Amino acid sequence: IINMAKQWYQRRVRGEESVGITFEQFMTFNHFLDHLDDVEILVSVYFAAGMKFNKASLKKVAHVVADVELDPHIIDVVFTIFDDNGDELLSSREFISVLKERAHRGLEKPSDTGFVRLITALGACVKSYIKGEEL
After folding, report:
1. What radius of gyration do the chain's Cα atoms show?
2. Gap between the Cα atoms of 124 and 5, Å rounded
3. CA 133, CA 77: separation in Å to the nearest integer?
4. What is the DSSP secondary structure assignment for residue 17, as one 8-state letter?
5. Judging by beta carbons within 10 Å of its beta carbon (0-12, 13-18, 19+), is residue 80 exposed, middle or buried?
6. Helices (H) and strands (E) in the chain, counts
7. Cα–Cα distances in angstroms (integers) from residue 29 to residues 2, 12, 74, 92, 125, in the given order
8. CA-CA distance, 90 to 84, in Å (whole number)?
9. How many beta carbons lie within 10 A of that of residue 114, not counting itself?
10. d(CA 1, CA 46)
């Protein structure tokens, strides 16, 4: 996070305009993330072949695996977020592991909001009311 803040500050000092992400860009990247298991396999092939995973590689993987064209701005954002050491290359640790964690966050165990307990309690109250019992 500190590196991201430094990069953001350096861009602001240089006077670069801050560019947001459009909904279409977000949806395209989200479609790419739907194929994360396939992306992981292809990235591991890159590393097994001794190739570096750079911005052009990410664009090619997105096209091959998910049949999407990632916008250069989205690719820059991904590298800004996930390139921990600033070498303009992504490692599996930097990229895939973090995205897989994000994909499974909150879904590993059911969350109890209390809604089911509330409905169960209301059902018990109605049942006892119908039977004429006191609580």
Report:
1. 23
2. 54
3. 63
4. P
5. middle
6. 7, 0
7. 24, 25, 8, 18, 48
8. 8
9. 8
10. 27
Take residue 98 and report the two structure tokens written for it.
């973090």
Question: What φ, ψ does residue 132 adopt, rounded to 5°?
Answer: 80, 20
What is the C-alpha separation between 115 and 57, in angstroms, rounded?
A: 46
Contacts of 39-45 with CB under 8 Å at 24 or more apart are: 39/65, 39/66, 39/96, 40/92, 40/96, 40/100, 43/90, 43/92, 43/95, 43/96, 44/92
User: Which pTM was predicted?
Assistant: 0.62
Backbone angles phi, psi at 133, to 5 degrees: -90, 155
pLDDT digits (tens, 9 = 90+) for 14-46: 555 556 789 999 999 999 988 888 888 888 888
Tokens at 26, concatenated? 């977000």
Give the rounded distance of the alpha carbon of 132 from its chain centre: 53
Q: Which of 93, 82, 78 is nearest to 44 (CA)?
A: 93
